[in-house]
Amino acid sequence: MYKIFVLLKQVPKSQNLQIDKNSGTLIRKNIETIINPDDLNGLELGLTIKEQYGGEVTAISMGPLQAKAALREALAMGVDHAILICDPQFAHSDTLQTTLVLKETFNKIKEYDIIITGRETSDSSTGQVPFQLSEALDIPLITDIFSFELENNIFLCQRNFGHESQNIKVNLPVLIRIGKHFNEPRHIPLLGIKKAFDKKIEIFNYECFDCPEYIDGCNKSPTQVVSIEKFYPKRKNEFLNGTITDKTQEVIEIMKDHGIERIYTGKEE
Amino acid sequence: MKDLNQYRDVWVFVEIKDHVMVHPCALEILGKARELADDLNQNLVAIMLALDAEQYLPVIKEHGVDKIIYLSHLDLKHYHERIFTKIVYKLVKKYKPSIFLFPSTEAGNALSARVAYRCRTGLVNNVLNLELDTERGDLLLTDKPAYGGDIKVKIICPNTRPQMCTITPGTFKKKPVKKSNIELIKEEYSFDKDKLKIKIIGAPTRKDKPSATLSDAKFVIGGGAGLVSEENFNKIFKLAKYTNGQVGGTRRPIFNEWMPEHLQIGISGETIKPNLYLAFGISGAIQHVAGITDSDTIMAVNTDPNAPIFRAADYCIIGDANEIIDGLVKYYKIEE
Fold first, then answer.
1. B321 or A22: which carries more pLDDT confidence?
2. Which whole number is the average pLDDT over B58-66?
3. What is the domain class of A2-220 according to CATH?
4. Which chain B residues touch A230 with a CB distance below 8 Å?
């Protein structure tokens, strides 16, 4: 019975995020949210390990109460348990503060064999938490695996590391960071949606931890955001009209303007 | 609170690439770091861990450093997370740098995150620019893209040291300059390898990642889910062949095995900066768009008039990309 944990984050889906001009912060009202894309691959890996080797999968997220929706989706995909780490004290945590809170979380959970994370989140794109959690829990982090086996609490896998492909062996517990290309996340089964609403999402708040006073997302995050601004791509956005032939001709003209010419002089195969 | 004034100097982690050369990105960072060090009136220090490290010293000396702190040992031939983290953290504790910059590479990202955790300090990754915030007592002010490049955030690290960043290759320019009296400090290496938890079984096989020509290409043709089939996708490879272009794409063509993984453009793939980028059947998810914003001209073809790719494009065509591609292949093909 392997105890498998998948970390996931709820992120904004919108591609057209707006900034509040007065406060200089992101307008979060009415933003559509999704599970961070990489984390779906993490959930898929967790569920695959459970199906092949037995165990229980717990999805963990840290965020506001709205993040329950992301955990609900993970439950619908098939995970057994869900934990939301949620407290005003954790708000505005940067990666270091997030790692410290996750460390407290796993100290409280005590028994864990496999912790799975995505590569990075699509909102802040730091990619730091997997490395820092490996430091915090003092367990090895394996990145870029392309095949694996589990045998008597030993994780055997092949991974790419630098310009080498290695066969490695590591005792559990282990932290695995999964990339987008390892697997394809499953679709949510209809029955899963019903089951998801019967399950309870456990809340971990500040009081749950023997929290040392160094945890304070707002005041003790070492990095502080000074300003945030919309990054406007300066593009013409000119729509070309006409028939397909006209449009193709326009593309050819633009290609010519950029010095692109036919160069292949051999015979067509 | 620690006395922050005892932290001085600008450090750059000079990564050795494939144990044969100084990583070009490290030299680019040295160029920018020299400016910061001059403004702060502090030293610019290169940190290097390698096998036969002495061979790399001449190159580093040409890039404006005041000091090089290095270790040389067989165990340092490849980046190793436990070994490198321990050594670099020890150096930070011993010498107390104020600023510590890393190349944003596989090793640089991993090492900087681990060292930042041990120092309980802040780390800003993939910064676009670095400057000193004179209003806030010469704090390092970093610019970082977020939300797939849609948003730019300015970040400081006011209360902890070192102030750490990673920098994407190509962000800054090398500025070769040689200072006189460069100080060399060779630190002793020691590490107990019995403590390592990851065991490598058998000899590793060399797996060179295909050299990325995408990032330097002048003309890039991108394909996405809208090309529908492998047969259609092959047509853009043909078009690229006729026009001396390079093919790239989104995540979907990789899943469908229409193209290999190293041709992915975007946050988790390559960043391109061609004169012209043609995006065929690409919806324009932010993960992809973030990798194309440096292109001079972008032209997009998509059936969906609301596809976000159009917001990122100079020329927009609503229509079936496959029909346009057919027309182009017909035009550029050599008549027999």
1. B321
2. 97
3. alpha beta
4. 150-152
